[in-house]
Amino acid sequence: MATPAFDSSVLTRRGVLAAAAGSLLLAGCGQRNRQPDDDPTGSGAPGGHELVIGASLELTGRGAALGVPQQRAMEITQEVLNLTGIPVGNLRRTVRLEIRDNRSDPREAARQATELAQRTQVHALVGGTSTETSMAIVEVAQKLQVPFLSLAAGDDIALPLAQRTYIYKLTPDAGDVARRMARLIESLGIRRVALLAAAGLYGDSGVRAVRGALRDVGVELVRTVRMPASGRSLTSVARRAATGEPDGVIVWSTAPDSGAAARELRRAGHRGLLFFDPGAVVEDTLSGPNAAAVEGAYAIHPSCIAVSTLTTTTTAELARRDFTYSYIQRHGTFSGFAPYASDALQLLAGAARSAGSVDRGRLRAYLQTQVTEGIAGGYAFAPIRHGGMERDSLGVYVVSQAAWTRYS
């Protein structure tokens, strides 16, 4: 197989991110060092000397395949950070998590964000693995001026920036994913593809990005089919996407719909290749009912899967390896979607450390100075950019024997 082309112009920037990551990723090493109980920051931290982070996650409902791994990742990273505490001014603060189950309901997510911000007085919010729940939290967080780190995809989450000053997005931008996917498709000699995209803002971002990326590499997009609302049958839309026997079908959606779409496409007679965006890379997509349908499918995803001990040399790689092993030890298998929540906690810890305070406004200001290599990939936030993982963090994976394997 041919190897997809890489953009060498971004590799030096990735090296800078890796070099900058040391202090952030090593925050959990050593023994706890308690400091005096004075609080010169005037932050009025609830519950004592803590960094209190509220999370509204999809722990039940259709979004649980994405939400549950986030809770697991946050708990692992909380323990690591609390081994020493976070140096904030002349104090060391521990992390306290206030996690809520939004049941995959945007209205519940908005209610929880309001309660966490006003009653619990959290210093920051994390969550929303679906675009819909994230957008509901965005409105609350911006109005109440609470920093919010979204775990969902959808380019509109952090835009327009003038109206999203307290909002940050950790997932890759749709344009970066689509360009990597288009280069892969071209390298495989595929000339005609169909796009089966999710409903709503998430699918809208994918449709725009895929159309432009395929046009740039000269691959024909024969048709675009949108999925119905989550939970409804995908049989008819899969048949439409498979009509005319395209060489490949791009499934731009999140689990569990990604695996269900693959099954229905195979039932509709599609025998060509399948291509997934990062929202598919969770255990559910590879589960029993989906296994045969997704075997041989490709996915674009941050390079945090299949960690090799043979090439683990940098601080970021060591942190990624340790996180992966901890996750597998506790939960049996590793979810590629999980590291976003871990990175959210590390980014907030880094902002508090730099700001010398847990004041919400100062956390917001120092989040936009964070340049680091996280568990999922590289981040380079700036006053003019609050969203999107660095594009060179993305890798290409193929499903081989019911596992995500790095493609080369």
TrEMBL record:
Name the Pfam families on file. Answer: Peripla_BP_6
Q: Which UniProt keywords apply?
A: Signal
Question: What name has this protein been given in UniProt?
Answer: Amino acid/amide ABC transporter substrate-binding protein, HAAT family
Q: Which organism is it from?
A: Micromonospora eburnea
Q: Which family does it belong to?
A: Belongs to the leucine-binding protein family.
**Residues covered by the Leucine-binding protein domain:** 52-387
Signal sequence, renumbered to the chain: none
